[in-house]
Design goal:
heterodimer, A: about 475 residues, mainly alpha, Cytochrome Bc1 Complex, Chain C, about 60% helix, disordered N terminus, disordered C terminus, B: about 300 residues, alpha+beta, seven-stranded antiparallel beta sheet, four-stranded antiparallel beta sheet, 13 strands, flat
Chain lengths: ~475, ~300
Amino acid sequence: MTQVSEQATPRPTRRSPERLYTHRIARWIDGRLGAAKFARTALNKVFPDNWSFMLGELALYSFVVLVLTGIYLTFFFDASSNRVVYTGSYAPLRGVEMTEAFRSALELSFDVRAGLVMRQIHHWAALLFLAAITVHLARVFFTGAFRRPREINWIIGCTLLPLAMFNGLFGYSLLDDQLSGTGLRIVYGITISIPLVGTWAASLLFGGEFPGPDIIQRLYVIHILLIPALIAVLIALHLAILVRHKHTQFPGPGRREDNVVGERFWPTYAFKALGLFFLTSGVLALLGGVFQINPIWVYGPFDPAEVSTASQPDWYMGWLDGALRIMPGWEIRAFGFEIPNPFFPGVLLAGVTFALLYAWPFLEERVTGDHAEHHILDRPRQRPVRTALGAATLSFYVICFFGAAADVLASTFGLSVNAILWTFRILVLAVPPIVAAVTYRLCKELSARDGLPIASQVTIREIPRRLLRGRAAET
Amino acid sequence: MTDAHGTDESRPVATQPPPRADDELTRRGARAERAAAVSFLLAMAAAIALTVVYWEGGQPQAEGILLAVVLGGIGVGIVLWAKHFMPTEDVAEDRHPMESSEEDIAAFTADFQAGGSTLQRRRVLVATAGGACAALGVALLFPIRSLGPRPGRGFKQTAYKGGDIRVVDENGTPVQPRDLPVDGFVTVWPDGHTDDADASTLLIHFRSDQDFRPEAGREDWTVDDIVAYSKLCTHVGCPVGLYQAELGLLLCPCHQSTFDVMRHAKPIFGPAARSLPQLPLALDGDGFIIATGDFSGPVGPGFWDRGR
């Protein structure tokens, strides 16, 4: 550790603090709000340090980048289904009929300076946003950070995930290219599969039968106003509750359930967070500048009668697309009514997934009978059952995700797509129980080797010092 | 170590290694300061270069890389600054249970009930006000209906309805059997409806040595070994665009549903559970292919009351 504290050698100020403009502005504000005491508490707020606590921050910074780049894109994008003939600078598509939405996306990419880089940063930021949310969710799950008093924040987080997924899907569907048009058609097919209300829901959302005259304008309003506003409000709530609770911490010397040990917000944590924001945006800028993403001019404008092979959605929708492929050709029909096939993987599976996510803290509390507050995090190996179930569930979705690549795998390796899909059908049922069993054994053995106590009432203070992570363990 | 029941002020806790010799600290400090300053300068230079690139007409890769250097330079500088020149000692802050004390809850309950007792005395007002708000809520739901038409017959019929309509290709040209080579296929629409997404149809010219067995009642639905099916997959409605002529199979590229063209396009693999609807074909007086009626069933993905 090589820290030199600035406080040790304070530099002499040239002017007395009372004469500084910042000081006078601060006094003016305080004279109207009386904020000094509150602000001081905020400065001294303590944040525990662990690499895994950065994941939520990554999601937050991706969202900031999404909003900033997104605002720029709205100045050029025209969400209209009107048909026009392209006359812009991308020669291969000149003279082709397309919607105004696709044309303005081409113009944004080829004829607006800094347009393409902004569009690509926006798309990469969406991928990172979803990735950060997903890994953050896994971190919170496997360390038991959802337990009392944080159930409300768990529910807010679980709501942010599908909101982010829908907004990503709707965002790339706006451009009306061949790939996203195919995606919207699948959205339509899943929507009308819902028993009783499906045809009404699809008709109201799309403004009629597919492709629907109004869908682009509607998705645009949903994508740039409705969902982002919801996400922003929920993020604000998420953070306000985090501040109220004070952050969880991993076990360590001096760390107890009734305290929080870490760096003060001001200045160290604030600077580290600001630095991480700049680094995150820097990486996104590099990705957006150098790595091509969603080249809509290659896909061409949407034609409802055409479809390209190897149509895959963005990564976070992959599990759903894979589940649609893996599902055998079953549906339920009786008395002239039916529950169509896509309902099961497209609506039921997604519904059960999120219902289980929402319910998990309450299920676990019921099973363990542990109603106490928890601010010290578990190591995953201390909770073999939770960790095993979590790992098994993850493996299920990972297999679904790869199932979405069945056609690509078939053509890449020269195999029969039927054989590959059959393999996935077996894997998706067989692997999760195996993963659960292996994870359970692994947790038991790891914690036995470490001498960790396993029990629902484990007292964290008993953990030997040598096992503790991070800087604290080096003492 | 800290006192668990002290004030809310945060205090240092002894989790830090002892400080090193002063001169080494100074040397490292100087090096870190230099590195951070260089980072900031690099960011500044890249920002200037970025404006130049933009001014000169822009170039996406250069813009991305330079922007990354600007942001990354600022980020690295700030992180070095925080790591080397800011206090890193751990401090402890007390945490209190979230639950309010019993006195606070009792006091709140008393105040709430004192104010809320009018609610109990004015039952009629509570009931009517609640009813009015509920009625408002229901009334406000109705404008949602404006968003789209009632899902009526449109889901179950196409522009082929009524029959005796020529099929045309994407340019609006009518099709004769000799336009379609053996093993070939073409996408067609009812004449005048080439924009109808639900009416896109596949004409397939199978080989006469293939074992084509029409479903009962559809023996005269083909013309010169040409059979017509809806192009919309019965799974989620993707266009079934891949024809494996050798095997007589149609494959949907979206989710790999496979349909047997020789057996009324029944699904033989993948998630689709229903055959592709078939279109009855005939020839008109000029030798062009016409549809004599609508598809054998609703096209595209299934829905709740498809069979009613």
